[in-house]
Amino acid sequence: MAVLIYTQNYDGKFKKSVFELVTYGAAAAKEMNTDAIAVTTGKLDETTLKELGKYGASKVISVTNNELNDFSEQAYASVIEQVAKKNDADLIVLGNNPYGRAVAPRLAVKLNAGLAAGVVALPSSISPFTVKKRVYSGKAFADIVIKSDVKIITLNQNSYKIEENPTDIVTEDFTAEIPDGAYAVKPIEVVKSSDKLSVTDAEILVSGGRGLKGPENWGMIEEMAEILGAVTSCSRTVSDLDWRPHEEHVGQTGKVVAPNLYIAIGISGAIQHLAGVNGSKVMVVINTDPDAPFFEAADYGIIGDAFEVVPKLNAAFKKFKEEN
Amino acid sequence: MKALICIGHVPDTTSKIKFTDNDTKFDTTDIKYIIGPYEELALTRLLDLKDAGTEMHITAVNVGTAETEPTIRKALAMGADDAIRINSEATDNLFIAKQIAEVYKNGDYDVIITGKESIDYNGGQLEGMIAEFLNLPSVSGASKFEINGDKVILEQEIEGGDLKLEASFPFVVSAGKGFLPESEPRIPNMRGIMMARKKPLQVIEPVAHDAVTEVSKFYLPEPKPACKMVSPDNVEELVTLLHEEAKVI
Ligand SMILES: Cc1cc2nc3c(=O)[nH]c(=O)nc-3n(C[C@H](O)[C@H](O)[C@H](O)COP(=O)(O)OP(=O)(O)OC[C@H]3O[C@@H](n4cnc5c(N)ncnc54)[C@H](O)[C@@H]3O)c2cc1C
User: Fold this and answer.
1) Domain assignment of residue A41, yes or no
2) Model pTM score
3) Which CATH class is domain B2-217?
4) A209: CA distance to ligand 1 center in Å?
């Protein structure tokens, strides 16, 4: 028995979302009376690997094959399968991010395991194994019962609180077998986006909509993000109009986000927009129209013209930051 | 190119979601159904490629009861050549993927395309499961699909950028945003709708596969307390509230 957590690294480092996964996996392991084991791909130094012990992992298995520097759904799924079998894992936890989404379904077939994708809480019961997941694009949740021996879940980012839980951690190297044809889809190159934090990793998002009238008016939005240490995002209309890059598009057909604070400026709050942002802890809306649907979803609102309110608010945020 | 495209039958994106039977079933009253938005993107992309001269045969496939037929007919009206419905409730993803894999084995398709995720179950699982059942290469959440001779150039979002990939047939791909570059949505016209009635829609029975997941209960999100309004002339109050009450700055 074990809970196996897939801990993806980026350029040899772990991001906060990985610590969230490990905290979650360790808590699930405790409920199940077993150990939390992390598995990584690619070369990482010992100190970095041991960081996972801070969040409750008792072992980290480092799969060191060079091929794994390039991502392949087939190769990664096969490697995790090998580690899962060797360690008798009965629960596998991955992030609901591009890697987890790509790999988990293949693992489910390999291990004949039920998969719950987009989980938002610890299992409410171990037997029958029941977890809560997001459905209807954030408009509802469902309890999913997984009946297979091995269970797989992908955890939604920012749905579990990171907590330190220092544990003695051992590291173990593992050389996996890479199946033939695992790189049949050939990686050609990585088209880098900026080094900026992505909208899904951000703790605060400052988001602009069509109410801002044009891309030339984003200076004040970027300024607010800068003051708050936030990232900028936008509505679909804005990215469709090419006012902002596509990676900033949040909502049902864009990125699903769950920051601590979401500030919507000049966004009406269409149901498809809200579906992607209503996992935010706190939402603020600034809009000229008191009937904008966003006011029904938000925690705090200002009815007013963004071109007047935002500069004033920026000054107030700045003052606050200087004093705190 | 012979494409097998998995068409989801999902509630319209503006639907108000409700449940019945003690919150164990989705309430279908007044719900309008559509083709899943990602599948619609993918189908439109294929049709655009076909119009631009790529030789293409498109088969739409759906696992569903007779209720899903209008959605399948819509795919035919948009321009798919024929369709297959596997006559079963679509619940467990491994079960659904198994059915699609069987259809693939009984045809000679070059590519299987799914949407990135369904907007009801939000699983995003089919592409990988189908590929694994068939031991085919796959690309999840592709944001580009360009034909280059006998290869396809794809892009996939990964951490820190987009990974450009080259795939040879056969393979499985799920379509995300960007799969369809700028293009007008295809609204079926009268002629398309008339033609769709004559296009073959084959109904087949499912193969057995044990379901390993089930929904035991649905929940609606907790109703939010009313929005606290702050005067535009007193934005400092918002800063204070965010700091002291919400504790997010
Ligand atoms: C299948 C489907 C999927 C979709 N997916 C998404 C998605 O993922 N994400 C998404 O965002 N949308 C999505 N949409 C589109 C969505 O329905 C809305 O059209 C879109 O979100 C509107 O963007 P907006 O709020 O920026 O613009 P608008 O709806 O035009 O709203 C602009 C708002 O700005 C306000 N305003 C105007 N001037 C000012 C000012 N000076 N100061 C302050 N406020 C001002 C207005 O009162 C208005 O409320 C989807 C639609 C469909 C059909």
Assistant:
1) yes
2) 0.93
3) alpha beta
4) 6
